[in-house]
Write a structure and sequence with these properties.
This protein has 227 residues and is of the alpha/beta class. It is built from 7 helices and 10 strands. Helix content is 37%, strand content 18%. The longest helix is centred in the C-terminal third of the chain and has 24 residues, at 203-226. It starts with 13 loop residues before the first strand and ends with a helix.
């Protein structure tokens, strides 16, 4: 902390951003910067990571966004069994160790499901034991894990950190996103009329998001000043 009369330069909240299934960090970056105004994106330090596994099938964004495409882990038709999940966790943690620290996670779709489940897994000592506690979440088109091996560990205690959730009126995951809210102590919700996508922010949504960012910025500032 600076001496009296000296300006203290405080940093923006830093988020690791996890993209959707069979897309990429670059695609998520494009979606966010196209849809959200600078009054939002310039207040956050957003770092976009590619998932560890090359796309193992057709991507739904083919013809819209250029490859390469990646996936965080694989799953069965019922979404109840996951393959390469532990490898995925190790990959993200290793990136956070080498490129952190990060304050929070921003996720879309498969990246949102991952992001929302990680605070609980970290609290249980299952993963992220070598990185600072996840303090904030921004969840777009998210849901809960459905693998039985993860449910008890990820949601055994409520998600304590401040979280912002986007629920789309025609999103096929909307009801699952509502279930996730029940596990959060402090959720803030932006409703939008679109489907499973990064939505544009209407006036009300923009106010909610800017208020959330202002709040977490104060929390980051307080921590920085104390240190």
């Amino acid at each position: 902390m600076g001496s009296e009369g000296e300006t203290v330069t405080l940093r923006k909240p830093r988020f690791l951003c996890l993209h959707g299934f069979r897309t990429s960090g670059e695609i998520l970056k494009t979606q966010v910067t196209m849809k959200w105004p600078e009054s939002v994106t310039q207040k956050l330090d957003l770092v976009y990571l590619d998932a560890p596994f090359p796309c193992q099938g057709k991507s739904e964004v083919e013809g819209i966004f250029d490859p390469p495409y990646f996936e965080w882990f694989q799953f069965n038709k019922e979404f109840t069994e996951y393959t390469n999940f532990n490898e995925c966790l190790a990959y993200i943690e290793d990136y956070m160790i080498k490129n952190g620290p990060f304050d929070g996670l921003l996720g879309f779709s498969q990246g949102a499901i991952l992001s929302a489940g990680l605070p609980g897994l970290q609290a249980q000592g299952v993963t992220f034991t070598k990185v600072p506690k996840i303090k904030f979440l921004i969840i777009v088109g998210g849901a809960k894990f459905r693998a039985a091996s993860l449910i008890d560990k990820a949601y055994s205690t409520p998600i304590q950190c401040p979280s912002l959730h986007f629920l789309g009126e025609t999103d096929f995951l909307k009801e699952y996103g509502k279930e996730l809210l029940e596990n959060c102590v402090d959720p803030v919700v932006i409703h939008h009329p679109k489907g499973h996508t990064i939505p544009r922010l209407d006036e009300k949504g923009l106010q909610i998001m800017e208020s959330f960012i202002e709040r977490i910025q104060k929390m980051v500032d307080e921590k920085e000043i104390k240190e």
